[in-house]
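Honest question from a wet-lab person: if I give you the sequences of every part of a complex, can you actually get the arrangement of the whole thing, not just the pieces? Trying it with mine:
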Amino acid sequence: MLRPSTSIPRRGRGPLWRDPALRALIVQIVLFAALALFIVFIVDNTLSNLAQRGINTGFDFLDQRAGFGISQTLVEYTSNSSYGRTFIIGLLNTLLVSVLGIVAATIIGFVVGISRLSSNWLVAKLAAAYVETFRNIPLLVQILFWYYAVLQALPSPRQSLSLFDLFFFNARGVEAPSPQPLPGFDLTLIALAVAVAATLGLAVFARRRQIRTGRALPMYRIGAAIIVGLPLLVFLVSGSPLDWSVPELSGFNFSGGITLIPELAALWVALSIYTAAFIAEIVRSGIMSVPKGQTEAAQSLGLRGNITMRKIVIPQAMRVIVPQLTSEYLNLTKNSSLATAIGYPDLVAVFAGTTLNQTGQAIEIIAMTMGVYLTISLIVSLLMNLYNSRIQLKER
Amino acid sequence: MTSKSAVKLSAVTGAAVAAMLGVSSANATTLEDVNSSGEFTCGVSTGLPGFSAPNDQGRWTGIDVEVCRAVAAAVFNDPEAVVFTPLTAAERFTALQSGEIDVLSRNTTWTATRDNSLGLNFTGVNFYDGQGFLVRNDLGVDSATQLDGAAVCVQSGTTTELNLADYFSANDMQYQQVAFDTSAQSAQGFESGRCDVLTSDSSQLAALRLQLSDPASVKVLPERISKEPLGPVVRQGDDEWFDIVKWTLFAMINAEEMGVTSENVDQMRDNPPNPDVARLLGQDGSYGEQLGLSNDWAYNIIKQVGNYGEVYANTVGMNSPLEIERGINALWTDGGIMYAPPIR
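Yes, you can. This is the full assembly:
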């Protein structure tokens, strides 16, 4: 039923509380103020209780000397560094194992997920057995298995298993030669950057050419040749300016080279294998969500099996896969805090463990640690959401 | 919802929360709390033989455990009126600060930071310890100064971890630290070959050594690199409870010095050989009432738990598998440094 507009009271006329928009605004302001007051009250209450009990508060401790050692440090750290530095060390170790885990879990997960749909009976059943085994054993148990079961089996450093006298396996981890760049190595790095840029440029050109003429360039082979060939040529011409530091047994342990500590190895393997079982199921669900008609249509156009998979099925499956994949990546990052069970120096073990206990500043440290995990998770979510919106079906 | 009811609701919620939190800032004293519940809570380790560990019947035993039983005997005339809560090194101070436990008796080293900045008070020392190193015999090491480059297993969040870093840097040596959450995990790490050396308080090393599959294959190096006075801890700001725990330990040490044992304590009470014993056992003066307890508080401790020497012998000393000599833990009259202020 239509009424003349003059019958609706105009804003500004009549009592204020009759205005629904203004009323809603006031309710929101009041609620927000009450929440803010509540938080202020909680914080103030906590601080005064802590002060009353003679417990130190504040973030001054971050500048004090830490005084303890850490087994794996990606940046410079000694026992004379500050507690603030232990935060950075722990954070970097958490990020390291998370990134390594995400990469490995994604690769294993995709391979297993696709294998489970294979028409080969053995491959499909092996993949199914993998998924059912690893996703049904608690992660902590798996971490302890890889750490203690595998570690116990390895020999002491003096009886190391060696591979060409370059790689050594023992209970202290894996020792490998590490590259030591000499002056002039910069040229090789510049060549590598140039090669990558050239390959990208060529790829854009090849794509345009294919759209225009229908002829494809074998980009994988050409790209690989450029990226490997150019830096290698420059490296040889500039006189091979690279030295290798080979691990050598001295005293109790190896010196030189780089060491993959067993705590990192165990945690990485366990996180990757466990998360990959879930990713495999996500991949399988994604692929199965693509109607069979899509595959049949591709085949009737004469596309080969792997092109059908790569160009038709996977891109459509990704729309289902990515949101769930985000959850798994977040889970993996947060699960990395189980590191504390085997002594891998991640953020929880170093900062929320040792540093908390040495300084006793529980509230500040736990708050910082929670803030870090929240920030990491939000960043991962953001990146995955950006990627997701790129691959979403373009509705035209 | 109108603005009026929203305001009302938030005001009510605020008041309720304020009331809830208000309780914690005006709470009763620890003694009143434990008297009304009939027992108190004692934080112990997750399992360290000799200090605090459950035996094969599941009963907590050890020198730290007996201190808590002695407090229960003094307060309730019942050494079993205490609940033991196992805690890791990283949890212990927060558990005490938050009121989850009333006494922390968990081989905890008395340091300035812990006493002064955590809102806690150390009540005394029930074991004088020092940090040492445990190595496998086949490593061929006789002294800690030969440990350059070694991988060292240590329990995280302990003074041990700090002493370790100081010792190696003072001696200009390198080491790789592998830090575990509990002492059992660090011992397991050592046994699995992850480390060359296990470091901890030397009494703990003696205990952990017994847990290894082959105790004869390892040895403790002679160096003691730190002072580790271990003792019970209470919350700061409750002097009454602080005094009770402090004087419980003093009563046990004084009893040993006076020769009062769990066996002769009845006879000693009925016929005190000297005024010191009479005061200790409540036959003279009102030393229990001064603490807010009954005057036979020390009698109950000694009768039901024993004097310091008896407890030491049965938990870590010669009557126990650990067989740790009294050493500096002997009474001051026997060449040690165990000394308690007089009861008078």
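Two things worth pointing out. The two ends of chain A are 37 Å apart (CA to CA). Residues 83-116 of chain A form the longest helix (34 residues).
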